[in-house]
């Protein structure tokens, strides 16, 4: 199964592509999609959509796993991230790729074994689980790989884990 993990954002959207077969991971690609802060909102959303379409066409994933929006105290930031997240979901839907969402707590639990793990612990476990030489950079790419790993560990468990699928 090819899993396309996404850490949605507006300025930076992380992505990670892994293969999960026979309980083994293979890293295919990871990176970020960035948008220029000086560009207007519609154009930034277009850039995210365009690059995602290109990546989905290139890797032809079986599923997409996306981290649910974590709402913090800055409503403006949450709305901006929500715009980017909406583009991610729409792009997957248009490509006919099933989307599964996971909370940050679910991702940490799946990757580290502890739902309150620190970011550094998650990144370290991503490195170990994917047999990488170093922790993926930037952080958004490592987070996207963690979401993909979470789906690999959770696939087939659907209703027992209360996974949201679109």
Please provide the count of β strands.
6
Can you tell me the CATH architecture?
2-Layer Sandwich
Q: Quick check: average pLDDT?
A: 91
Spatially, the strands of the biggest sheet line up as: 3-2-1-4-5-6
Give me the strand/helix succession. Answer: EEEHEHEHHHHE
Largest sheet: 6 strands, mixed
Our estimate of the beta-strand percent is 15-25%
Annotation keywords:
single chain; 166 residues; alpha/beta; Nucleotidyltransferase, domain 5; six-stranded mixed beta sheet; 6 helices
Describe this structure in words.
- The protein is an alpha/beta fold and 166 residues long.
- It has one domain: Ribonuclease H-like superfamily/Ribonuclease H (Nucleotidyltransferase, domain 5).
- It contains six helices and six strands, in the order βββαβαβααααβ.
- A six-stranded mixed sheet has the order 3-2-1-4-5-6.
- Strand 1 (2-7) and strand 2 (12-21) form a beta hairpin.
- The model has no long low-confidence stretch (mean pLDDT 91).
List the helices and strands and how they pair.
Elements: E1 2-7, E2 12-21, E3 24-34, H1 41-59, E4 63-67, H2 75-95, E5 99-102, H3 104-112, H4 119-129, H5 139-154, H6 158-161, E6 164-165
Parallel strand pairs: 1-4, 4-5
Antiparallel strand pairs: 1-2, 2-3, 5-6
Helix pairs in contact: 1-2, 3-5, 4-5
Short description:
The protein is of the alpha/beta class. About 50% of the residues lie in helices and about 25% in strands.
């Amino acid at each position: 199964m090819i899993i396309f993990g996404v850490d949605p954002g507006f300025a930076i959207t992380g992505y990670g592509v892994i293969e999960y077969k026979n309980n083994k991971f293979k890293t295919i690609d990871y990176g970020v999609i960035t948008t220029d802060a000086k560009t207007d909102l519609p154009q930034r959303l277009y850039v995210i959509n365009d690059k995602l379409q290109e990546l989905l066409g290139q890797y032809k994933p079986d599923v997409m796993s996306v981290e649910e929006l974590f709402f913090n105290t800055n409503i403006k930031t949450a709305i901006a991230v929500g715009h980017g997240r909406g583009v991610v979901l729409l792009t997957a839907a248009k490509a006919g790729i099933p989307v599964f969402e996971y909370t940050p707590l679910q991702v940490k639990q799946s990757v580290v074994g502890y739902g309150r793990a620190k970011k550094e612990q998650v990144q370290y476990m991503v490195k170990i689980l994917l047999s990488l030489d170093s922790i993926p950079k930037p952080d958004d790419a490592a987070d996207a790989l963690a979401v993909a790993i979470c789906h690999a560990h959770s696939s087939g468990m659907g209703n027992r884990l209360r996974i949201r699928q679109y």
